[in-house]
Queue: 3 jobs
Job 1
Amino acid sequence: MALKKSVLFFILPLTLLMWQVVTTLLNVPEFMFPRPLSVVRALWQMLQNGELYTNTISSLFRVTWGFYIAVVTAVPLGLLIGRQKYLRSVLNPLIQFLRPISPLAWIPMALIWFGIGDKPAIFLIFLSSFFPLVVFTTSSVLNIRTTYLRVAENFGLSGMKFYTRVILPAALPEIITALRITLGTAWLVIVAAEMIAVKSGLGYLIMDARNSLRMDMVVAGMVVIGTVGLILDYMVRLLERMPSVEWSRKRR
Amino acid sequence: MEQEETLKKVEVNRLKKSYIERRTKKRFLSQCSAYEYCKVLDGLTFSISSGDFVCFIGPSGCGKSTMFRIISGFERPSSGSVQIDGKEVTGPSNKHVCVFQEDGLFPWLTARQNIAMGMEEASSKEALEEIEEYLELVGLSGFGDHYPHELSGGMRRRAEVARALITNPDILFMDEPFGALDFVTRLQMREEMVNVHQMFDMTILFITHDIDEALQLGDRIIMLSQRPAKVAWDIKIDEPHPRDLSTGDLRRLRKEIYYRMGLHVAL
């Protein structure tokens, strides 16, 4: 807590001040490294004309859909793969092969399959989250303590009950960590995707500003991306505080 | 003559278990090197009458837990048979409940929810009352809404015992259940086990490293040999509870067990 406060009230203002002073003293041209004040001005301007708002919303819209679809498909699949040896031996090689391919490499395909608009971007976000989530979920299922599985077996839990009452809750803490990481990646990918595939969103805003050499707007866009990223991360971290998840942190 | 007619609760016949050692590094106390056929259980034969409290003792690593996993149905024997109520054991059953060596409470459920998990149907008013009864029985009333990580080691064990008891099992398997507890808590748990055994008419199979614990709890003590394990000694104890280990037959028996376990110096 003390650290957070010192960052907020001391380190952050100091960095901004240094930035302003150094760029002014060295007379760095605005188009190479804009000053904090002009970034603030650009932010204010974009806030007023609504540009910031609409672009943030369209980025969030795509990330939400892509991520949501990935979560509801990848987590159940990961749980199944983690439990079924046969399924694992069939699907694992395929998933391991597809996972390291950057979602951006899918852009040409995405454009051909889904045309221009939200759909290809959502598809890319889905891809960026889906494979890591499946892999993380699978490994968290494999990490479940044998004792819990034995207890479940002992009490005759089977089928859906076994998955919803034992496997999912036992794997949940690790799954939530995976959600945090993947949502971060999704937010990284959306910016890149929007630079190429669409005409709206924060990625597009940055590209558009660059084309008119408005570096103050580029940096302003970056600031917004960082802030939204922090908020998203915070939201997932709230899940870690659920009482039925807390145990994994309290144990050690 | 009549005794032979009565059906034994648990019948273990020439039980053998061996596996192929896959560890390439030699493990402490293991006599098997890598990729060798390793015998754990070597023809265990014994039978247990209904309602008995049987304690198993033996050197560490001798295969007590392996034997338990086989009798309770979690593992298959290599050869030989295990019969419960005259039927071959093919898998775990909620009539034969285990309390494992490690914490077996689900950490994502509260004590109450954990105990409720042992029941077929846990939402009715009667069921909730029953859960409350069992919480009280093990001295956890008021702690029902606590998560396991908010309970002490002894309380967690109690909750686990309550979860096992509420299913009304025929057989209770306990694998060194109190090993990790402090001395006084362990004594309290022993006392409660004696009460539980007198209150509920069930067969209890109990692994322990603690010879005194075995002497205080068991109607019978089965001592296993070094690996590969055989029955080394089968002792019946007919003393009433509470038992004083410092006098009489129990004292002599205790000495003898210490001696046979390889503790030659009188402690």
Job 2
Amino acid sequence: MSEEKKGLKGATILLNALHQEGVDVIFGYPGGVLLPLYDALLDSPIRHVLARHEQGVVYAADGYSRVSGKVGVCLATSGPGATNVVTGIANAYSDSIPLVVLTGQVSTSSLGSDSFQEVDIIGITMPITKHSYLVKDPRDLPRIVKEAFYIARTGRPGPVLIDLPKDVLAKENVEPFPSDMKLKGYKVFGRDNNSKIEEVVKALSDCKKPVLYAGGGVVTAGAEGAIRQLAEKADLPVVTTLMGVGSLPFGHPNLLGMVGMHGTVTANYAVDDCDLLIAVGVRFDDRVTSGLGHRFATKAKVIHIDIDPVEISKVVKTNIQIVGDARKVLEEVLESLPDSTVPQVTEWWTRLRVWKKDHALSYDLNRLTPQMVIECLGELASENTIITTDVGQHQMWAAQYYPTTHPRNYATSCGLGAMGYGLPAAVGAQFARPDDLVVLITGDGSLQMSIQELGTIAQNKLPIKIILLNNGVLGMVRQWQKTFYEGRLSSIQLEGNPDFVKVAEAYGMLGINVDSPDQVRTAISQAINHPGPVLVNFTISPDEAVLPLVPPGKEITEMIVR
Amino acid sequence: MLHTLAVLVENHPGVLIRVAGLFARRGYNIDSLTVCQTEDPEVSRMTIVVNGDDQVIEQVRNQLSKLVVVHSVTDLTGESVVDRELALIRIEVSAETRSVVLQTVEVFRGRVVDMGRSNITVELTGDIAKIDAFVNAIRPYGLLELVRTGKIAILRSEV
């Protein structure tokens, strides 16, 4: 190395800082302003996965994060590349998923001049990022990267965007500033009031009809063990949100199922009737409360445990509020809970068991149904199998029927409800956990929103299995048109669908068609045992409905069940 | 009710839009906002006056606190504070009204800072009520232009 070349290139400093944060893979898509970075990537130990659309890079990073608990990293070029990651950023923000999103930007000298492929991505994403940085001096890169990861993963996690002008990446001979963080204004909220734990313990000992209500905060905090211990120690019935699926393993006797719009009858009755609701890491979303916060769990004393003070009393008036990490708080409750204060829940359980028996989820065994496919998959797939889904009917059937045993084995777009999430998320999940089986459960509408990512699967030889529940329509919209719009079906017919098995084969995958119930088990078994990627196309009726259904604006006890 | 928030923020480009954006997204109009550097050149202080029900303001306050660029948020509403606003007011004057306008300025302890052939410009400081009262008093003579800084406030020290 010549004497005058002491420093490094901006792009190299960035990659070194990412490596320092433990980044092993970046999902990305190149473009003009990123040329210096893609050149430097050739000399970096970080693996780059080329997607087929920038929407895919951000969903892949999201899937990677959900199944591993690590920060997901993605990269898109300026202008259209950056705008293509916007939906994915909103998705991660909605579900509090830690991402560091890197976008290319035009050179600092051209900023604001409407130059080629320039957009103000910081401005566009301000309401959907936890924080964002425009890097103007490459010497700041180590600090900014360190801060970005810290902000993304701490407190209530979320996406952080770093906008990287081309000249910042291209600058040679940079001697970076130290990476010490300067985050005076950033607060991670913790619990500071011990007396509240005593109140929780007292509420638990006084109640007769408790319900434990677990959401995404349980997953973030790794509190599933504490949820299980508390549920078992105090014999608490547990309901979960979609984000909280797997907080208590499927089939656990204390699990009543999902609560809300497509929740189980028992879970919804229980929440409505309970006298103590312990809400952990949830935000009383309108898909749970029907948007009727004031009429939700009205007979109950409500305890709300959440790391984000903004969520406290936002939707539902609560009686005991604890701001803190779900796991730490629950562990403290467990420690303070003597065996003698366990609530008297025998009568409550008698009632719950009757509801459970009378309102068990069920379906017709004589025709090919989506529920049958998912249950069969659950029987054949090993416990560590990762499920990703798209959005719509199949997503709800998966939540209802797939036996998820651990929350990090399940990745789905909850708050934003973004179709097209599942396939790229499966790609990200497979990179995070290369030894585990990854299965995408999807529909024919959702799959076509990201179908180009089959190319990413093929290029990287990822053994992902795709369970396609193909009804030829946009099923959830169709179900609502049938139920709430007098059957006036509008723009839900997907005529012109391709032959999905041929599409899969064109990408070098194994494709299997299934159209009768007796083929289900063999096909799923064949898919699981095949060493490469597989798509199984299940032809189902467009009239299959997701039930129960709480109509919007109705109380959660007013379910349509058949 | 009216709330006065004192917000300490980083003195960087883009900070104002992050703060203002939070109010806009909840549909709340900011009545007034002043911002300038503090005794620490890296920190600016915003004084924000906003109308809204207590619970929503509490939410906004919590959301402001969450912004990485915000160091602290204090709700000064109901606290013992010294608050001031500065106004520059251009008033039409004629031979007949000149003396009564000047008398009014005197009564409110304003200062004439500019004088033209047919108008004068007055500088006035005080709390919002005082400035409102002055504006109402001179309005009949011809209020030509009004510039107000919005409220700034500081907590009274304990004696």
Job 3
Amino acid sequence: MKKMLAILLAALMVLSLAACGGNKETQPETTKGAESQAETQAPETKEETQPAAAQGKVFRIYAWNEEFKGFFEKYYKVPEGVTVEWVLNPSDGGVYQQKLDEALLNQATAADDDKIDMFLAEADYIGKYVDSDYTMDVTSFGFQNAPTMYEYTIKAASDANGVCKGVSFQCCPAGVIYRKSIAKDVLGTDVPEEVQAKIDTWEKFDAVAAEAKAKGYYMTASFAETFRAFSNNCTMPWVDANNNLQFDPQITAWMDQTRSYIENGYTLTAGIWDAEKTNEMFKTGKTMCFFGPAWYYNFCMTNAQDPENGCVGDWCLVKGPQAYFWGGTWLLAATGSDNTEMLKDIFETFTVNADVLNKMVKDDNQYVNNTDVVKAFAEDASYGNTSILDGQNDIAIFYELAKDIKWENHTNYDQLLNEGLQNKLQEFYNGSVDEATAMLNFYNYIGEVYPEIAVPAK
Amino acid sequence: MKKQKPQTLGTHKSVSYAKWGYIFIIPFFVVYLVFTLAPQFLTIYNSFFENYRSGLKQIGPNFVGLENYKALFSADPSGTVRILKYAANTLILWVAGAVPQFVIALLLAIFFTSYRLNIKGQGFFKTVIYMPNLIMAAAFSMLFYTLFSRVGPIQALLEQWGVIDASFDFFSNRITVRSMIATMNFLMWFGNTTIVLMAGIMGIDQALFESATLDGANSVQVFFRVTMPLLMPIFVYCLITAMIGGIQMFDVPQVLTNGKGAPNEMSRTLVMYLNGYLTNKNYGMAGAISVIIFIITGILSAIVYKMLTKQYKEPQAQHRQRKGKVL
């Protein structure tokens, strides 16, 4: 009897442990990619490169999510004898930056196979790494920036002296992705040109929000949905030359807009990545507009692509009130890498290999960093995005938008300041605190994460 | 030969097994010195320096004396001293979880050890109440987060029943967030406390309970006059260890509120504050907070120890004195 009981309890325990084991993804995780790459088909045209004797056996990549890993495993054939190790840490709260910094500071003393070979960086903090000695000149291993790469992506990856340290595999012009059926109901039309004409300024956009509200819809599904449209048009950086925090008129404009949207019920209090927001992309969703670039389709709109509850084909893309870009993933070459041939190879695969890039546009709805490739799609009347849009040629729109992207007014602090401002203001928008307290909490937060920044005293 | 005999006798007498005792505890002390005591002193030392990282640049360490402490205890523009706010949060969260934890644990311990109730299947119950402790706090918090989130089942259920309206958010309400944290801590730790207290009660001579009952004491009297006084050392031990754990509360609120301590930092604990400074490896400020936590822990433990043991020590002491006088 006792034995039975013991076995039963042990089984229960194991079960409960297994149950929670499935629940939480342990981060950081290190996955070995070699086996899975062996199975994926490599593009036929890619030339075989064998590692020279001097090249390392382990290629270590730091990243914050699976997005690029997916493309890497799908399109890049790892040279024989090389193992790819991914170290993934979530970006939230600056965790990725912390872990990466730690590893980079130890880079000089790490064993060759433990050295980082390549790491990914986002627009919000790429400068921190580009302006350091922890990244190396791409020309040092024979990579040449192609003329087809977007100028701003090169500028972002270049230090103050113009030395380029990496490449971006995507270009991220962004627009408004709207639900056709809701637009039809609210505006009486779902034709992109006509919709665009009705929301091409913020005043018009706000007016449409009121109409949408009157019909029982939301204009946007997150208080921070329009944040990037404003913040990436800032005319001054977050901090001035003397490290004083400053609010760009665009940021205050976003705050004003959001305050009124919350008061009027035009938007939800959910954060930009919250399930409450992404649930609005189901067929049953009541939200008309989402703001995003090409990566938004697969990264944020999986609910819209749900075979049962989704609404593929009920979406169209327009420029919206203000052109902007959002995010982008740069691949940076880490100083001390012993796999420079592979680095060069990867950079070339994702910026100039037309075969791979064509597939990325067609199969993965990416907007790649190669003007020749995207131009061909933009001018191809037969191309249309059917995996989420209604067959509209979204590349043509992105192609126009991408022409205006400029790289300016960025600081190394952007990620945590953008994130902190949104997090603290969210408490004001959901009614927990008043606005003054929320701002005070934001200043206190800055004092903790960046003591060197001077915040406005009362 | 004759001389040798007393000599051997003498050495026999002075053979001391105590030295083996000391040898056996050396590893612990070495580990303690290297991994606990030395870092403790280093933390105190670090708290007097400006020492953090700005991006990939190291700032400091520059000696700044008590500046870090001054910064911690200076009020922000709204007049709040934040460390005091977080200390109060920590205390509230701990008390809210610890009171039910100890009440329930004591009750269960008494039920399980009572020869009158003689509960069957104790092994089963003991294991089950201990089980929440086996789940990682982070996983447990994620579970609660998922259950109570805006798109979670509880929100939907309560909305359907009309208990709350659609705009209600469990995570933007101070009371619900704190209750959730307290509940989780209670669920995770009451089993552990029950088992320790049971061990304590079982260590008490059964004859005392029986004789008290024979003398006509009811259960309440037995509990307050016999069980509690004799259980006091174990009880105080449990309380102090629980308190130390409570002051260091971190994982549950951190994961539940995604590090924000929402709403309005009302569920942000001292260690979450410390963790905030570690974003940029600010060893100076983080060290200063650690030292303050250390001092608070020391003071509170001393108070609890004094308060609870005094009450039960004094009658004994008086008793002995009286006895002495009679003798």
